[in-house]
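Protein in question kept in full:
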Amino acid sequence: MPSTRDIRRRIKSVKNTSQITKAMQLVAAAKMKKAQDVATSGRPYADLLNQVLVSLKGRAEESSHPFFEAGQGNKTLVVVIATDKGLCGALNTNLLKKINQSLPDGDYDFVTVGRKASQGLARLKKNLVADFTIKDPAKFIEMRTVGRYVQDRFLTGEYKAVLVAFNNFVNTVTQVPTIEQLLPVNAVKLGGKKSFEGMGAALEVAETAAPTIEYAFEPGPAVVFERTLPQYVNLTLFQMLLEARASEHSSRMVAMKNATDNAKQMLKDLSLEYNKLRQASITNELLEITTAKMALE
C-alpha cells in the first residue's frame, strides 16, 4: 500500500501534467480555429476551379491531355500527408491502418509530407522515395513543390497512377482517413464536388450537374486547359493538406482536453485515497495513545 508521502508526490506530478495539457489544449484550440477557417474557405475555390475545368474540357480540342491517361509504368505513387508532431490521438495511426488495409503489398512507392508519415511507413517497411517538410501554417508555394514532383514522375511514365492518403476534416471530433486518386484525373468525377466536405468511408464524390455558365477563354480553351490542369493538381494537393492540418489541430485539441479531464479525475481519486490513508493513520495513532494510557493505569 502506498504511503501518504507517495500519494502527495503523485498528486503534485498529476497537477503539473494537468497544467501542461491544459496549456496545450488552449494552444491547439487557437490553431484549430485558424486551420478550420483556412480549410473551409478554400473549398469554394476548389469547386469553382473544378467547374471551370469542366467547361474547358468540353470546349477544348479532342486531343487528350496526358493527365487523363494512365501512366505507362507498373507502379503506383502514393502521397501520404500526416503530422510533424504527435499528441494528436489516433490520427496518424488510423491513417496508416487505412493505408495498410487499402493498399496491400504490391508495387507502391511512397512520398511523405510530415515526419510521422515517414516514421510510420518505415515501421511498415514501405518503399519511401521522397520526404517533404511543410511548416505550419502551410503555404501554397511549398505544396506546389510536391505537386511538381509527382507530376514530373507521372509524365515520365514511371508510375501508372498517383494516390493521396490524408485525414479528411469533417468536424472537430470527426476526421476520416481517406485515399483519393490524384492522377490520372478521373474525367467522370471531374464535374463532381472536390471540396472534400462530407466525404466518408465511401470514397465516392457526389456528382453535380455541369455548370451552365459560359466562360470566355483567351487565348483559347485548349491553351488555357493545358495550363490550368497542373494548377488544378497543385490546388487539389494543397486543399488535401489544409484538410489534414485542420484534422491535426482538431484531434490534438480533443486529445489534450481528454488528457486534462482524465488528470482532474485522477486528482479526485488520489485526494480521496490520501484522505482515507490520513484518516486511518490518525485513527491508529489515537488507538495507540488510548492503549498506552490504559496500560499505564
